[in-house]
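Hi V.,

You were right to ask for the full record rather than a summary. Here it is.
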Amino acid sequence: MPSVYGSGGLDRLKPLRNNDRMNTETVNPLAETERLDAEAVLRHAFEGAPLDPDVGRRVDERATRITEGVRRTRGVIDDETFLTLLADDE
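Predicted structure:
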């Protein structure tokens, strides 16, 4: 009776090679810049270290982009509603 597994022997193993598509370790240079900027801001806030003006500018620009994105997707909340929401947290 013939084998349901082909010739009845084991399949040959292919030589191992680098599987780049499954590599989960990626380097995002923007994320690295953001991490370094965050560290500089924390050193400035908690240790009194001077803040490089370029770091401050980048942080301000990112904050502006994030705020604009939130306003675009969620809208702007009026002061009365905001205060009501704060009161609900108490």
